[in-house]
Design a protein that fits this description.
8 strands; globular; about 170 residues; 8-stranded antiparallel beta sheet; 4 helices; single chain; alpha+beta
Length: about 170
């Protein structure tokens, strides 16, 4: 399984102004289309979707109720959403719980890693994975489909193989 430290190189956060920290509920849904995400969060703050490393990917950035939300679209649907307040304190337990519930519905999350700097959960039999990391520029929660993690893992393996070709 990929570690958040391996993944952070794929997800660079832009410089963020201070945002309001509160126990607000952001209602997110993995699997939503670009139009559904814009209806939920408002327009992409980067004005256009950024292409990913493959034709199957696009990235969007949104600002909603004191959160910055970075969405990875894969085959036209949201497969990964990262949430941050831009504050060094990070998200509260209430905010994390609300975001997890919004992304898995009534299916319970099972915590699989519980370390001070990083927590991991699984839901829907592993089809949905979440990681809260206090490392990096700002603490953030990432919720992703298992399909997207598999795709990213395969891409990282391909890059690693290319990096050692010719030795």
């Amino acid at each position: 399984m990929l570690c958040w430290h391996d993944m952070r190189t794929l997800y660079c956060l832009p410089t963020v102004a201070c945002l309001v920290l509160g126990a607000m509920h952001v209602q997110a849904r993995l699997g939503e289309t670009e139009k559904e995400i814009e209806k939920r969060y408002g327009p992409n703050i980067n004005l256009k979707l950024t292409p990913g490393e493959s034709a199957r990917e696009k990235e969007g950035s949104y600002s909603y109720k004191g959160f910055l939300i970075f969405v990875s679209f894969f085959d036209g649907k949201s497969h990964a959403e990262r949430y941050t307040t831009g504050e060094p304190e990070g998200l509260s337990d209430t905010q994390i719980d609300a975001l997890l519930k919004a992304n898995a519905g009534e299916d319970p999350w099972r915590k699989v890693v519980d370390k001070p700097e990083q927590k991991w959960w699984r839901a829907r039999g592993g089809d949905v994975v979440a990681c809260y990391s206090k490392t990096g520029l700002f603490p953030q929660l990432m919720v992703s489909t298992g399909e997207y993690w598999t795709f990213i893992g395969e891409r990282l393996e391909q890059k690693a193989k290319k990096g050692v070709e010719g030795f």
